[in-house]
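Same chain as my last thread, 497 residues:
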Amino acid sequence: MRVLLINSNRCDQPTPVLPFGLGCVAAAVRAAGHAVTLLDLCFSTQPGDDIRAALRRARPDVVGISIRNLDNSAGYGTELLVTDVRDAVVRPCRAAFPGPIVIGGPAVGINGAELLAYLDLELAIRGDGEEAMVELLARLERGAPLTGLPGLVRREAGRVVEDNDPAPVADLDALPFDRIYDGLDLAPYRPFNPAVQVQTKRGCPLGCSYCTYNRIEGRAWRLRDPERVADGVARLCRATGLALVELTDSAFNLPLDHCKAVLRALIARRLDLELRTLGLNPGAVDAELVGLMRQAGFREVALGAEAVCDATLRGLGKGYDARAVLAAARLLHDHGIAVMWYLLVGGPGETPATLRATLAAVNAAAGPRDLVVIGIGVRVYHGSPLAARLLAADPACTSDRFFTPLAYRPEGADLGLLKALVKREALRQTRYLMYDEDEHVPRAIQLAAAWAQRTLAPGQPSWQSYLVVRRLERLFGITALRRMTFEREHGAALAGR
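reply #2:
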């Protein structure tokens, strides 16, 4: 069959991201013998025109649309992203294509049924998409019933008639991970210093109160063979000409032994790589791990701290305490690895006192090259432990399984107050980035920052340009003016807080 696969993600903050999940499905569909055409709308300014042109060229039998995010994941001032997907992607596609359209991706893994209704579509696949999409195409090709297909969400006459549990791919090593960027035009991404994305496993048995990885990928680790991971990285980097590799696991260093085996395999191949990960769990960091990370090519890492206060960490369902967070940061600094601290403010048990404890601990522990990224408010997602807790307390708290954004409201604090406390601290610290305020960076500035990073500071963390801008703002008095304005507007409300 002829298949057109569309990357609907046009969010380019903080920088454009290669469509990893769509590439995985494309590689599997191509390996099954189907003709695959990719349409990447990340840089599109006229998506409707681009969709119609792609449909004319590809003449597909089936269209697949990947949906990365429901929203921007911010609990405070949530920005719904699927509205753009509906208006700019799905509606033009439906108007020009009478055949079957199937949606997939992480957003579908959370709210597949609700997305079908919102987009007025009939077919969705949630969970692992590779085998499910291949089976869906096989059934469509021979006219077989779709009933019972694992992971399929199906709608008829405006009503969801099936919402099947996914069947996770048992053998990840059988998937063609090294072919995921075949057919993708990398040229628009290259000026932004893009990262090749790699998974060493899927699934997550952890119980973080806000997280949906369990729902999307399952509760059991499914591990890839470390040697095959390293071989796949080498082939991907050769094929793309990219040397920056992002390990995208939900918790990169768990299980710890498997993570160390992957690092040893990468080191053994003597690849000239720069590695990073967005998921370093502070509860499983030791000196051997950090030494291997440095040897393999890590110069920076995102530490999923979320807080540095035991009460807050317990409320967020983390399996480590504040001492573990600080010990992990010290080890990383000792090995010359800069840290991006991720903090999540406003979860269960959060109060002004717990927030002040976290900020004080981070200020004392962060290094001069570190960045502190802070999200205000916990967005409640369907499938998370927090969603289950809220439903148990009040079944009427949501009418659409949290598809409509809902922020958790901590009993001990007002979110507006917590945001103001963080903002005051951000105006005192050059290393702070507030996710709900500082996430929108014009593309020209992204390009300039990427060029400066690539040519002037190749050994510095990828966020170094942000730190430079903040220091210049302080030097020229811009920060002082912002602080004066803030205190005039909020100082009285924060007095004594």
